[in-house]
Structures are given as C-alpha cells and as structure tokens.
Write a structure and sequence with these properties.
Elements: H1 32-52, H2 63-78, H3 82-88, H4 92-103, H5 110-127, H6 133-137, H7 142-147, H8 154-167, H9 170-177, H10 181-196, E1 201-202, E2 205-206, H11 207-211
Helix pairs in contact: 1-2, 1-4, 2-5, 3-5, 4-5, 5-8, 8-10
InterPro entries: ARM-like (IPR011989), ARM-type_fold (IPR016024)
Length: about 210
C-alpha cells in the first residue's frame, strides 16, 4: 500500500482595500467650571454694555445685573486663575472702569453702592496676580481708585486702597497717601477686627487680605 502524502494548503484572505470607517471624533466636553465661566462672561458683558448706555446707572436696579456682577466678584475671589481671563477679555475692564467713574460723579443709591463694591472687588481680585498688573496699569485706573479713597462706604475705601497697593510702586504710594491717614487707620482697624473674629474676617475681608 502506497504512502499517503499530506499536503498543507495556506489560504490567504485578501485584505480589504476599502477604507475602514473611523468613529467620529468626540467633541471636547466642557467642565462645569468652564461652562460657568463662559456663561458668566457672555451674560455679564451684555449687562455691562447696557449699563454703559444708561447715563444714570438706573439699570443697575435690575436684579440680574447685580447678581451677575456679584457672581463674578465672588468667582474671581475663589478662583484667582479666572482673573487672567478677566484681564484678557476685550473691553471688559474698561466697562467696569466706566461704571466706577460714573459712580463717583453722582449721588448714589444703596443699590449703586453695591454695584460699585462688586466692581471694585473684581479689580482688586485681578490685581492680586502680578501678570495682570501691566494690563491694569494700561487702563489709567489709578486716578479712579484714588477718588474712591474718599468714598462714603468703608469697604469701598478699603478695596480701593488695597488695589492701589498692588499696582503702584513705593514712590507713587507715598504721593497717593499724603493727607489721607484715615485710610490707613481703616485698614489697621479692619485687620484688628478680622484677627479677633472666629473666621478671621471683617466686612468680608480676611486678615490675610488686610496684611497683604
């Protein structure tokens, strides 16, 4: 009986030349913080544009404008990095400055004082980061903040003083503070009261901010 020869065959399956369909690229999902920041800037700039078109600032009595300013003041305080976006935002700080300038030229209501307080806070929070200082200096805001050293509301005077301390040099500060010893007294008093407070705060200002 003859030998049986086993032959192995290899069958090659031709590779398909058709291009394989790639799954569509997923769009980058924004985080809640990014969405929140984006919406704040979008809505707030619209609000400020409307405010600037109203000479007597009566529009500030609209609750949504006040809430937006307050939100951004708080947000920039809690998240210092957002102040870089504030500094880069075209015309944003200019609009805030215009509100403050108009504020000092008229008799103000309680709601206007709140708006000024939040605008000052936005500037102060922005001034904490050294990288924002050139942008702030370019706005010629020093005279505006000097005028707020005589404001009736104590917290506004304190915020103005602290902002100036962040953006002007020693020589300028000597000139600014001449004849205004009461402002320094307010700062020291606030620091003392903040240190005595269980939360180390007074007028929403922490002891750390006062000592900065």
């Amino acid at each position: 009986m003859g030998n049986i020869v086993q032959v192995e065959y290899t069958i090659e399956v031709p590779h398909s030349t058709e291009s394989e369909e790639k799954p569509p690229e997923e769009k980058k999902k924004l985080t809640k913080e990014e969405v929140k920041k984006e919406n704040i800037f979008k809505d707030l700039n619209k609000a400020i544009d409307q405010i600037n078109q109203n000479k007597d600032l009566e529009i500030n009595n609209e609750k949504w404008n006040r809430d937006l300013l307050k939100s951004l003041a708080n947000y920039s305080d809690c998240t210092p990095e957002v102040t870089k976006d504030i500094a880069r935002e075209k015309k944003f700080l200019e609009n805030i400055r215009n509100i403050l300038t108009s504020h000092m030229k008229k008799e103000t209501k309680e709601e206007d004082e709140r708006v000024a307080k939040w605008c000052l806070a936005i500037y102060y929070n922005t001034s904490i980061m050294d990288s924002n200082i050139p942008r702030l200096r370019s706005l010629d805001i020093v005279p505006v903040f000097i005028s707020f050293l005589d404001a009736q509301v104590e917290i506004s005077r304190l915020t103005a003083l602290s902002t100036l301390a962040n953006i002007i040099d020693e020589k300028e500060s000597t000139e600014v503070l001449q004849g205004k010893p009461d402002v320094i007294v307010i700062l020291l008093q606030n620091l003392s009261l903040a240190l005595d407070d269980p939360h180390h705060k007074h007028l929403d200002w922490s002891a750390q901010k006062c000592a900065r």
